[in-house]
Inverse folding.
């Protein structure tokens, strides 16, 4: 996979075994153009699927393919560069004191509930959530804390950035990026404070508050005044209508589990 990515100019630079069976994390090296980053994410999926096919195997980016096992996420790391100097405006020896970083996080957290339909766009997406799998279920942030929705890595002052940890691997990277950047711009423009960072296990401190199903997520998106300012309301209407149609079809289908439970027992 790494060789094929290299041949196609896709900056994949590491593959690490993850917790579920046959589950791997692939890291794409950062680039300055968010559209290019989304292009690479999409192209990498195609590379992986085709190489699996060539080896008579299969691959999936389904958010939750196996019950009881960790699902597949899509984490994105974002820093903002000053156009004049190329400097990362989040860079700081003390990230909590960086106004730009705090305000960006504040906007992302405020718009997170309305962004969920883009971050987790399918019915199966919401099966991935659960504290035992370290998938955030409330808008939260922290420094080097892997239990929160927005983690700030602090390895060095120059590389301070936002790691957004909510989206599933089934998300459209362009819509995901649009929603996150809208939140960042909203936060910077309105100087939104994110509150204190979470220390320790966020699941023990915060109740689940993000939408936990597609219907509620679509309602949040449809009603969001902020996202409707950044993303065409006509597009949001079409997106919501398409997803509601998918839900309608899903809800009239009868699963094997229903037959096993009810066919001869009621």
């Amino acid at each position: 996979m790494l060789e094929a990515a290299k041949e196609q100019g896709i900056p994949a630079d590491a593959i690490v075994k993850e917790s579920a069976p046959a589950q791997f994390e692939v890291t794409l090296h950062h680039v300055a153009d968010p559209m290019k980053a989304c292009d690479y994410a999409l192209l990498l999926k195609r590379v992986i699927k085709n190489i699996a096919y060539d080896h008579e195997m299969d691959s999936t980016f389904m958010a939750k393919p196996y019950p009881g096992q960790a699902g597949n996420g899509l984490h994105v790391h974002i820093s903002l560069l000053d156009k004049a100097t190329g400097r990362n405006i989040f860079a700081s020896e003390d990230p909590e004191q960086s106004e730009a970083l705090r305000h960006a996080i504040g906007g992302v957290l405020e718009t997170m509930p309305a962004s969920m339909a883009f971050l987790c766009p399918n019915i199966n997406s919401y099966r991935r959530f659960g504290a035992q799998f370290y998938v955030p279920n409330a808008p939260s942030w922290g420094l080097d804390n892997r239990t929160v929705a927005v983690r700030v890595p602090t390895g060095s002052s120059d590389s301070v950035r936002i790691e957004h940890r909510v989206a599933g691997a089934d998300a459209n990277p362009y819509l995901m990026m649009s929603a996150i950047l809208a939140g960042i711009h909203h936060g910077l423009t309105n100087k939104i404070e994110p509150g204190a960072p979470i220390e320790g296990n966020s699941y023990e401190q915060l109740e689940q508050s993000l939408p936990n199903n597609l219907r509620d997520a679509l309602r949040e998106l449809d009603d969001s005044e902020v996202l409707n300012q950044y993303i065409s309301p006509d597009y949001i209407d079409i997106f919501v209508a398409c997803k509601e149609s998918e839900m309608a079809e899903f809800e009239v289908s009868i699963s094997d589990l229903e037959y096993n439970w009810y066919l001869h027992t009621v």
